[in-house]
Write a structure and sequence with these properties.
Blueprint lengths: L2 E2 L3 E2 L10 E3 L7 H22 L8 H14 L3 E2 L4 E4 L2 E3 L16 E10 L2 E10 L5 H16 L7 H14 L3 E2 L5 E4 L9 E2 L15 E3 L4 E2 L6 E2 L6
């Protein structure tokens, strides 16, 4: 099921500069840390293998297949189908068998990649603007992400992070997507019980040490909400 809205971007960070981060993982075993690092390298390198090749007319299914082949070549497994979401499609679109969709001209392309080793997940993403008009959206998301990362520490409230993300995005003339959020990552669980909002909310949750998260600022020049499309491919 894909989620649609006017043009936006997302990005988050992990060992390499793309998506997941974590704080103070001292309680994880060396084997578990190794799994996370392997997954992080595989996902990040798989993403890098395609983002500089994106061009008008490129089949979406080609992107998905290339990403998943790369992940498997490292000995890891995809954590979820590669997402390639275009323009007003905010997230969660993946090519189905026989998909003929291609990259439109002057579009905003969001690629979301996941890899895992023994269930330890890395979740990475990047946005490619094929038109200068979308570059401010990308920069706003990057700024919001940087602001959130700089505020990460054990005990920080999710509501604080949401407020910082929202304030940063609005200061740059855009809106955050209210009903999309970052999320906790757990072994074999892509979306844990805690989430990181993109707006100020009254949340009882805090980020604690030994937890793993994906931070996902979504930015739009539209209304700031998404709706689910009737097509379900994931």
């Amino acid at each position: 099921m894909s989620s649609t809205c006017p043009p936006l971007t997302q990005r988050v960070i992990i060992l390499s500069p793309f998506k997941v981060m974590w704080c103070a993982l001292a309680l994880l075993t060396e084997e578990e840390l190794s799994c996370l690092r392997r997954a992080g390298r595989a996902a990040s390198q798989a993403l890098k293998s395609v983002i500089y090749k994106i061009h008008e007319g490129m089949p979406l299914i080609e992107i998905c297949e290339q990403v998943e082949r790369y992940i498997k070549s490292t000995g890891c497994e995809p954590a979820f189908p590669c997402n390639v979401s275009i323009n007003y499609v905010a997230a969660h679109y993946t090519s189905f068998v026989g998909d003929k969709s291609t990259i439109p001209p002057r579009s905003l392309v969001k690629i979301d990649v996941g890899a895992h080793v023994n269930g330890f997940i890395a979740d990475v993403a990047s946005t490619i603007a094929l038109s200068e008009e979308y570059e401010p959206l990308v920069r706003a998301a990057e700024r919001a992400l940087e602001t959130a990362i700089n505020s990460i520490r054990p005990g920080v409230r999710m509501s604080t992070l949401g407020s910082l993300i929202e304030t940063t995005i609005k200061s740059l003339g855009f809106k955050p997507i209210r009903n999309l959020s970052g999320h906790m990552l757990k072994q074999y669980t892509l979306h844990g019980e805690k989430s990181i909002p993109n707006v100020a909310v009254d949340s009882r949750f805090s980020m604690e040490a030994y937890e793993v998260y994906a931070i996902e600022p979504f930015v739009t020049n539209g209304l700031g909400v998404v709706v689910d499309s009737p097509e379900v491919y994931i």
